[in-house]
């Protein structure tokens, strides 16, 4: 059992023959991901990286039975690519593209929800189930198989958390990089819920950042649902000044509860083990799991 992607996922790449799509598709194939083809309008019927190229997602799904798509399409066309995937019956859509206009996402998000698809991203590193499938841009070698689920707004901190987990003698069940744009398909709470319901995940690392209320929502949900599994939280941006955007478009302090210290307080109040720095994530998790066993 895993969350969102596994060895049986049939993956296509939208923007397959572009430089980004080509580079990361090759990495995914080398990792062992079941990549069955890709989409580049106008290049249908050709082959790329030993896989078939299709003009549309509908053609790709019809020919390969694809159920998962990863999107490397320029920002101006990416929302259309997301909706095209949902239209074709793709169930898991992972949008790597950064900087999709907010007004486009305001249309795409409800549209795909109506179609019953799950969107991860945009502006995210993707999803990895170690040893089974890497549908994203993360360095696969960092992730060791295990039972710790990771939910993160930050790409780099996802890799750091995976490394800390490995150093603590633990491994990762599935890591979900939800993305740092103002409008994303799957919230922290929704991703945490997926991992809470996964029988092969016994604990969760939740990495957030300043801005918005995703982490507070998730923390309250964890407590309301009886703190079933230990959750370790970390918030990036502890030194960020109010009103200044830090890195991600969504990382801006707009109110008192948007600060790192407020989010850390809310997490503690809801029974989440808080790591003060990324370097402590593995250590705090090992301690939390020891407490559960005791």
TrEMBL record:
It comes from the Bacteria. The keyword Protein biosynthesis does not apply. CoA binds at residues 17-20, 43, 96-98. Keywords: Ligase, Nucleotide-binding, Tricarboxylic acid cycle. It catalyses: succinate + ATP + CoA = succinyl-CoA + ADP + phosphate; GTP + succinate + CoA = succinyl-CoA + GDP + phosphate. Its EC number is 6.2.1.5. Pathway: Carbohydrate metabolism; tricarboxylic acid cycle; succinate from succinyl-CoA (ligase route): step 1/1. It holds the Pfam family Ligase_CoA. Succinyl-CoA synthetase functions in the citric acid cycle (TCA), coupling the hydrolysis of succinyl-CoA to the synthesis of either ATP or GTP and thus represents the only step of substrate-level phosphorylation in the TCA. The alpha subunit of the enzyme binds the substrates coenzyme A and phosphate, while succinate binding and nucleotide specificity is provided by the beta subunit. HAMAP family: Succ_CoA_alpha. Belongs to the succinate/malate CoA ligase alpha subunit family. This is Succinate--CoA ligase [ADP-forming] subunit alpha. The lineage of its organism: Bacteria, Pseudomonadati, Bacteroidota, Cytophagia, Cytophagales. The gene is sucD.
């Amino acid at each position: 059992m895993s969350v969102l992607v596994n060895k049986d996922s049939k993956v296509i790449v939208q923007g397959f023959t572009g430089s980004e799509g080509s580079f990361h598709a090759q990495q995914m194939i080398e990792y062992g991901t079941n990549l069955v083809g890709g989409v580049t309008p106008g290049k249908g019927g050709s082959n790329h990286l030993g896989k078939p190229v299709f003009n549309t997602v509908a053609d790709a799904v019809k020919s390969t039975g694809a159920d998962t798509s990863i999107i490397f399409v320029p920002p101006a066309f990416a929302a259309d690519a997301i909706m095209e995937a949902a239209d074709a019956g793709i169930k898991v859509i992972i949008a790597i593209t950064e900087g999709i206009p907010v007004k486009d996402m305001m249309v795409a998000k409800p549209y795909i929800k109506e179609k019953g698809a799950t969107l991860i991203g945009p502006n995210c590193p993707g999803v990895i189930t170690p040893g089974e499938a890497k549908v994203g841009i993360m360095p696969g070698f960092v992730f060791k198989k295990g039972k710790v689920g990771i939910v993160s707004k930050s790409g780099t901190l996802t890799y750091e958390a995976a490394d800390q987990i490995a150093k603590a003698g633990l491994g990762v069940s599935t890591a979900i990089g939800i993305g740092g744009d103002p409008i994303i398909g799957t919230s922290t709470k929704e991703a945490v819920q997926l991992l809470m319901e996964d029988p092969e995940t016994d604990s969760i690392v939740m990495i957030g950042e300043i801005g918005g209320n995703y982490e507070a929502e998730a923390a309250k949900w964890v407590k309301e649902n009886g703190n079933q599994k230990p959750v370790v939280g970390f918030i990036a941006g502890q030194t960020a000044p109010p009103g200044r955007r830090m890195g991600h478009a969504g990382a801006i302090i707009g109110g008192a509860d948007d600060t790192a210290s407020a989010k850390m307080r809310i997490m503690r109040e809801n029974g989440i083990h808080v790591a003060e720095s990324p370097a402590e994530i593995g250590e705090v998790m090992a301690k939390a799991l020891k407490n559960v066993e005791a």
